[in-house]
Amino acid sequence: ATCGARIDQPTHSxxxxxxxxxxxxxxxxxxxxxxxELARQCAAGDMVDCDLLYAEAETNSEAERYGxxxxxxxxxxxxxxxxxx
Length: 85
Known about the structure:
This protein is 40% helix and 0% strand. It has 4 helices and no strands. The two termini are 14 Å apart.
Protein backbone atom coordinates (compact mmCIF):
# COMPACT_ATOMS: atom_id res chain seq x y z
CA ALA A 1 0.00 0.00 0.00
CA THR A 2 3.02 2.30 0.33
CA CYS A 3 4.48 1.28 -3.03
CA GLY A 4 7.44 -0.48 -1.48
CA ALA A 5 7.90 2.25 1.15
CA ARG A 6 8.23 4.88 -1.60
CA ILE A 7 5.32 6.96 -0.24
CA ASP A 8 4.39 7.86 3.34
CA GLN A 9 0.64 7.22 3.28
CA PRO A 10 -0.97 3.98 2.04
CA THR A 11 -2.77 4.21 -1.30
CA HIS A 12 -5.53 2.24 -2.96
CA SER A 13 -4.32 3.33 -6.42
CA UNK A 14 -1.81 1.66 -8.70
CA UNK A 15 1.69 2.49 -7.54
CA UNK A 16 2.75 3.28 -11.11
CA UNK A 17 0.00 5.90 -11.27
CA UNK A 18 0.87 7.35 -7.85
CA UNK A 19 4.60 7.50 -8.58
CA UNK A 20 4.59 8.72 -12.18
CA UNK A 21 1.05 9.62 -13.22
CA UNK A 22 -2.03 8.31 -14.98
CA UNK A 23 -1.67 6.87 -18.50
CA UNK A 24 -2.74 8.48 -21.77
CA UNK A 25 -5.75 7.25 -23.70
CA UNK A 26 -5.28 3.87 -25.37
CA UNK A 27 -3.31 3.97 -28.62
CA UNK A 28 -4.58 3.14 -32.10
CA UNK A 29 -3.46 -0.42 -32.91
CA UNK A 30 -5.20 -0.94 -36.23
CA UNK A 31 -7.64 -3.37 -34.66
CA UNK A 32 -4.99 -5.92 -33.63
CA UNK A 33 -6.65 -7.82 -30.76
CA UNK A 34 -3.32 -8.87 -29.21
CA UNK A 35 -1.94 -5.33 -29.18
CA UNK A 36 -5.28 -3.98 -27.93
CA GLU A 37 -5.13 -6.34 -24.95
CA LEU A 38 -1.50 -5.42 -24.22
CA ALA A 39 -2.48 -1.74 -24.33
CA ARG A 40 -5.40 -2.30 -21.95
CA GLN A 41 -3.19 -4.20 -19.50
CA CYS A 42 -0.47 -1.54 -19.80
CA ALA A 43 -3.04 1.17 -18.99
CA ALA A 44 -4.18 -0.91 -16.02
CA GLY A 45 -0.64 -0.82 -14.61
CA ASP A 46 0.92 -4.05 -15.92
CA MET A 47 4.40 -2.81 -16.76
CA VAL A 48 5.44 -6.14 -18.29
CA ASP A 49 2.63 -5.72 -20.84
CA CYS A 50 3.83 -2.18 -21.54
CA ASP A 51 7.25 -3.62 -22.36
CA LEU A 52 5.64 -6.34 -24.51
CA LEU A 53 3.54 -3.76 -26.34
CA TYR A 54 6.68 -1.79 -27.13
CA ALA A 55 8.42 -4.93 -28.41
CA GLU A 56 5.48 -6.21 -30.50
CA ALA A 57 4.12 -2.98 -31.99
CA GLU A 58 5.15 -1.70 -35.39
CA THR A 59 8.22 0.57 -35.30
CA ASN A 60 7.38 4.27 -34.92
CA SER A 61 3.69 3.51 -34.32
CA GLU A 62 1.42 5.07 -31.73
CA ALA A 63 1.24 1.69 -29.97
CA GLU A 64 5.05 1.44 -29.80
CA ARG A 65 5.25 4.94 -28.26
CA TYR A 66 2.53 4.03 -25.75
CA GLY A 67 4.46 0.94 -24.68
CA UNK A 68 7.78 2.79 -24.64
CA UNK A 69 6.40 5.44 -22.31
CA UNK A 70 4.68 2.89 -20.04
CA UNK A 71 1.23 4.01 -21.13
CA UNK A 72 2.14 7.69 -21.17
CA UNK A 73 3.49 7.54 -17.63
CA UNK A 74 7.02 8.55 -18.72
CA UNK A 75 8.34 11.16 -21.09
CA UNK A 76 11.27 9.02 -22.19
CA UNK A 77 11.46 5.33 -22.94
CA UNK A 78 12.95 2.99 -20.37
CA UNK A 79 12.16 -0.47 -19.07
CA UNK A 80 8.66 -0.09 -17.59
CA UNK A 81 9.24 -2.91 -15.13
CA UNK A 82 11.82 -0.69 -13.42
CA UNK A 83 8.98 1.63 -12.37
CA UNK A 84 7.59 -0.91 -9.98
CA UNK A 85 10.69 -2.74 -8.80
